[in-house]
Amino acid sequence: MEILQHIWDATPEGEAIVIYTMRNALGSEIQLSNLGAGVVSVKFADRRGNIDDVVLGYRSSKHYMGDPACCGKSVGRVAGRIADGRMTVEGVEYSLEINCGVNHMHGASKNFANRLWESSVEGNRIVFTILSEEGEGGYPHEVAAQAIYDFDDENNFEITYLARSSGTTPVNLTSHIYWNLAGESSGTILDHCLQLNASQTLEVNERQVPTGRLLDVEGTALDFRTARRLGDGIGDEFNRIREYRGYDHYLIVDGWRKNILGEVGILSEPNSGRRVEILSSQPGCMLYTGNGMSGGCPETKSGGRYVDYAGVAIECQGYPDAVNHPEFPTVLLQEGELYCQKIVYRLRAE
Fold it and tell me: Which residue among 176, 184, 192, 269 is the active-site one?
C-alpha cells in the first residue's frame, strides 16, 4: 500500500487542507481530506479494466466548506434530522440549532463535515481526529471523535468511527459518500441497481422526520430485497417518495445485532460491471438519491455541474430522530463508553 500526502489548499485562517492518497497493488486509489474527514475520490477498474472516479466531489477545496450536500464527508455529532431541534437527555430539555427548515440537521452548521480535523498516517491507515466542545450546536458535553480509513490490496475500503464523551449525549456518525459507479461525470444513477437487506422502513411525515411507525416494504417502491433499478420507483407515492422528489428514506437492516458487522446490500451499475458491497455495524441506512443536486452544487471535479440524481448516498447510521423515540435503538453515548461503528465497502467488478 502506497500512501501519499500533499497540501491541497489553506483555510482563511492559514491552516493546511491536506489530501491523502491511498493506492493499492491493483492500481485502485482512495483520496481523503482532513476537511470534514472526507472522501474526495474513489478510483477503481470496471470490467474492461478502465479506471474511473466513482464518487461525487468538487473542483475546489473551498466548495467543500458548508456545502449542503456534505459531499463525501463525515457527518456528526448526529447524522440526520432531529425534529424541531428539541431533545430531552436525562430529564433535561435541549434546544439545538435549527438549520434545515424547522429541524436540526447533521449536527448544526458547525458540524463535523464543516470543520478541519487533525490528521495523520499511522501505518497503512489514515486517522482523523476532532474535538467537539460542550454546547456546540446546543449539545451537552464534550465529544472526542476519530474517523479511521483502511484500504487493502483486495479493494476493501473501511471506515471506523470512534467517539468518547464527557457525559451522556447523542452521537450518530456516518459517511456521506455519493456513488456513481459509471463515473462521477456520467449523468444520473437511475439505471444503477440496488439490493438492500431491509424488510422495513421508517414512516416519515411532511417535515421528513419519523412518526415512530415502522412500515413493511414488501411490494412497495422501497422494496429492494431483490436488486432492482433505482429509477423504477423514484416517483412513487409510497411513504412520500414523490413528495421528496425521490428517495430520502431510512431502511432498517434485517437481523441487525449491536456491534456486529452485517451485510447491508449491494449497489451495482450494469454497463461498467462495477459494484459496491456494503457492510456495517449500524442498524440501518439512509437512502438518498441526490434529489436536489442541480439546485446549488458548486463546480464539480470534472468542471461541470451535477444534475438531480447524479449520485446515490447509502448512509449507514443509527435511526434518525432517535433521541425523541425511546422505542428506537439508542444513539446516546454514556460517559466512559466507547462509540465504535464500522462501514465496509468492497469494490468489485464483474
Answer: 176
**What is the model's pLDDT at position 21?**
98
Reported confidence tier of residue 297, pLDDT bands at 50, 70, 90: confident
CATH number, domain 2-349, options 2.70.70.10, 3.30.70.100, 2.70.98.10, 3.40.50.1000? 2.70.98.10
Cell numbers at 30, concatenated: 482512495
Indicate the average pLDDT of the chain: 96
Task: State yes or no: pLDDT of 53 exceeds 90.
Answer: yes
In the DSSP assignment, the letter for residue 329 is P
Q: What angle do CA 76, 77, 82 make, to 5 degrees?
A: 95
Residue 315 annotated among the catalytic residues of the structure: yes
The pLDDT of 111-124, averaged and rounded, is 95
Tell me how far apart the alpha carbons of residues 318 and 285 are, in angstroms, rounded to a whole number: 8
Burial of residue 291, with CB atoms counted within 10 A of its CB: 0-12 exposed, 13-18 middle, 19 or more buried = middle
Cell matching residue 277: 458491497
Candidate list 29, 97, 184, 315, residue with the active-site label: 315
Q: Is 206 a catalytic residue?
A: no
185, three cell numbers = 461525470
Model pTM score: 0.97
